[in-house]
Design goal:
Active site: 338 (proton acceptor)
Oligomer: single chain
Number of strands: 19
Domain FAD-dependent oxidoreductase 2 FAD-binding: 36-472
Largest sheet: 5 strands, parallel
Strand content: 5-15%
GO molecular function, one term: succinate dehydrogenase (quinone) activity
Structural class: alpha+beta
Distance between the termini: 45 Å
Catalytic activity: a quinone + succinate = fumarate + a quinol
Strand order of the largest sheet: 5-2-1-9-17
CATH architecture of the domain at 268-431: Alpha-Beta Complex
CATH superfamily of the domain at 268-431: Succinate dehydrogenase/fumarate reductase flavoprotein, catalytic domain
CATH class of the domain at 268-431: Alpha Beta
Protein name: succinate dehydrogenase
Length: 670
């Protein structure tokens, strides 16, 4: 049995990482070309890791299921990336970023990892600027910052509403250089379907060429998984349709513990669901909460009239609007953390004040009219017009908003056919990010030696809730500034190992396992599509393992998913052949893993008898509907060990979270 040794270094929190790095083992430059490293996933964490290790001289094999690393889902991030540079001179520091992240995660993150993240955050910005990332700048030429939820400082660097895209292009340029030099071998349109262990160590993967269907063996001295989160277990989420948990889950089934699977982030600013045939949801950047005010009608009859199409939101008088976040949380207002904002929206809609015209009433307004007027007046004064007309103010205000958020407003209008400059946006919470993932130690190594996990695929940095603009920060921190040290320390023991053979029994067993599963799906005499089952799984997950959870719903979810899994293997129909491009086969393999994960998520949520961050147990809330943690009994990371297809047999291991430098307290954003 693996032991949960987090390998947190001794010493003061501010010196742990520096001192630790100074004593890690090294691989000399002349020995690095003798060592192979596999990187699975080419988002920010994967591209950064592959580029960095390639630059160091290792032989890197990088895999992505997309047609290009540029298609990784990191490209979809909009609002920005955090760093403690204090450019706005508003009191930010490494400690404040550390503190805000721990508090934002509802005191369920590992102190040492989070402080390291805050320490290296400034280096990320310098690295990206050097790559040519076009961060927004203020009038004097310095990089601009804006606020995000859960903080009272401006530390978010951004590139309009397409920060993820610009950062990914920077990382892509770095990995492309290494591909050109021959240090990185790129495998596009390849999907990892199993992890191979030899003598207990991760020594390679089994991958499927998605164009030809060929099953391939790839060996290495270490494997790094950078494959993102598992939000698509809910079917409807803000994730790209192809995003999946397969690589991480296969590692789990080979012995890597899976930590805190119940921690799922519901993002408060997404475009509401519009129909039963919808296949994904669209995120509207959290940065919009800098300028937009969130509200619902104060009167139920006004909400009913809006839903019936008898009234427009612009007809609701100011005194008849409930700016409920500003009312409930005056200190942070619309910039409370995502889990807090999401639950508040759900509470208003459940109470009958929702404004979206569908059966669920799921929708609130994000209104920019006040910001347009304020910035319009400011722009007029700046230009010397001290007595502007209302029309001039509105025109100038819209221009300011367009410069700041224009592509986001354009995207919203294309999707909804409504002009957000004139009519408030409709938003509602949706599944976005997953804080749980493969358990890793301080080195980002899983319980399988040689299997490292970075970015959203691991559990390590966000606790029970991720603050906005911290995903990009973690991915690049792991890839550029952590893994090059910790992976090298591990590989120092492999300079005499030589090439890892793919002819071993372990590779043969793993390949046959993959082929058998593919054959099982293609020869199944079912009659229902993969999406049929995925939608049903998503319905169970959203209703019973979603924003609100309780004993009855979670217990039902476990048994309902078990029955659905059984039906899935009997009744699913996968057309086509194994030796061709077959998207339905790809989906079937991924949904099979989602089924198992969904059960584990419900089990994890059921054992955690408290509310914290994105895990909201309805039985554990205070009189005002806020999370009620149990720090005495649940101040731990719940890491699950796989023990067979019956998820009920999975064994829970606990890593107790010791807080030495931050005092645990009730979260208060009021």
């Amino acid at each position: 049995m693996s032991i949960l040794d987090s390998k947190i270094p001794e010493g003061h929190i501010s010196q742990k990482w520096t001192d630790y790095k100074d004593h890690l083992r090294l691989v000399a430059p002349n020995n690095r070309p003798k060592i192979d490293v596999i990187v699975v996933g080419t988002g920010l964490a994967g591209a950064a890791a592959a580029a960095s290790l390639g630059e160091m001289g290792y032989n890197v094999k990088a895999f992505c299921f997309q047609d290009s690393p540029r298609r990784a889902h990191s490209i979809a991030a909009q609002g920005g990336i955090n760093a403690a540079k204090n450019y706005q001179n508003d009191g930010d520091s490494i400690f404040r970023l550390f503190y805000d992240t721990i508090k934002g995660g509802d005191y369920r993150a590992r102190e040492a990892n989070v402080h390291r993240l805050a320490e290296v955050s400034g280096n990320i910005i310098d690295q990206c600027v050097a790559q040519g990332v076009p961060f927004a700048r203020e009038y004097g030429g310095l990089l601009d910052n804006r606020s995000f939820g859960g903080t009272q400082v401006q530390r978010t660097f951004y590139a309009a509403g397409q920060t993820g895209q610009q950062l990914l292009l920077g990382a892509y340029s770095a990995i492309s250089r290494q591909i050109g030099l021959g240090n990185v071998q790129m495998y596009n349109r390849h999907e990892m379907l199993d992890l191979v262990k030899v003598d207990g160590k991760a020594r390679g993967i089994i991958a499927r060429n998605l164009i030809t269907g060929e099953i391939e063996r790839h060996s290495a001295h270490a494997v790094i998984l950078c494959t993102g989160g598992y939000g698509n277990v809910y079917f409807l989420s803000t994730n790209a349709m192809g995003s999946n948990v397969t690589a991480a889950w296969k590692a789990h089934k080979r012995g890597a513990y899976f930590a805190n699977p119940c921690y799922v982030q519901i993002h408060p600013t997404c475009i509401p669901v519009h129909g039963t045939n919808q296949s994904k949801l669209t995120l509207m950047s959290e940065s919009l909460r800098n300028s937009g005010r969130i509200w619902v009608p104060k009167k139920k009859e006004d909400a009913e009239a809006i839903r019936a199409g008898q009234m427009r939101p612009t007809e609701i008088a100011e005194e008849d609007r409930d700016y409920y976040l500003e009312r409930r949380y005056p200190a942070f207002g619309n910039l409370v953390p995502r889990d807090v904002a999401s639950r508040a929206a759900k509470e208003r809609c459940d109470a009958g004040f929702g404004i979206e015209a569908n059966d669920t009433m799921e929708g609130v307004y994000l209104d920019f009219s006040a910001e347009i007027k304020a910035k319009g007046k400011q722009a007029a004064l700046t230009s010397g017009n001290h007595n502007p007309s209302e029309e001039e103010i509105i025109k100038l205000g819209k221009k300011w908003v367009e410069e700041k958020y224009g592509n986001l407003f354009q995207m919203y209008e294309k999707i909804t056919d409504e002009n957000p400059y004139e009519t408030p946006m409709k938003i509602y919470p949706a599944v976005h990010y997953t804080m749980g993932g493969v358990w890793v130690d301080y080195n980002l190594q899983s319980t399988i030696p040689g299997c490292f996990v970075a970015g959203e695929a691991n559990f390590s940095d966000h606790g029970a809730n991720r603050l906005g603009a911290s995903a990009l920060m973690q991915g690049l921190a792991d890839g550029y500034f952590v893994l090059p040290y910790t992976v090298s320390d591990y590989l120092a023991g492999d300079i005499r190992t030589g090439k890892i053979s793919t002819d071993s029994p372990e590779f043969e067993e793993a390949e046959n396992h993959v082929k058998d599963l593919i054959s099982k799906f293609l020869t199944n005499n079912g009659s229902k599509t993969v999406d049929h089952f995925h939608k049903r799984l998503g319905h169970i997950m959203w209703n019973k393992v979603g924003m609100g959870r309780n004993v009855q719903g979670l217990t039902e979810a476990i048994s309902e998913i078990a029955a659905l899994r059984e039906e899935f293997y009997k009744e699913v129909y996968v057309p086509g052949d194994a030796n061709e491009l077959n998207p339905e086969l790809e989906k079937a393999l991924r949904v099979a893993d989602f089924m198992e994960l969904g059960q584990l998520m419900a089990r994890d949520a059921l054992q955690r008898n408290e509310s914290c961050g994105g895990h909201f147990r309805e039985e554990y809330q205070d009189a005002e509907g806020e999370t009620l943690r149990d720090d005495e009994n649940f101040n731990f990371v719940g890491a699950w060990e796989y023990n067979g297809m019956d998820i009920n047999q999975s064994e829970l291991h606990k890593e107790v979270l010791n807080y030495e430098y931050i005092k645990i307290a009730a979260r208060n954003y009021k």
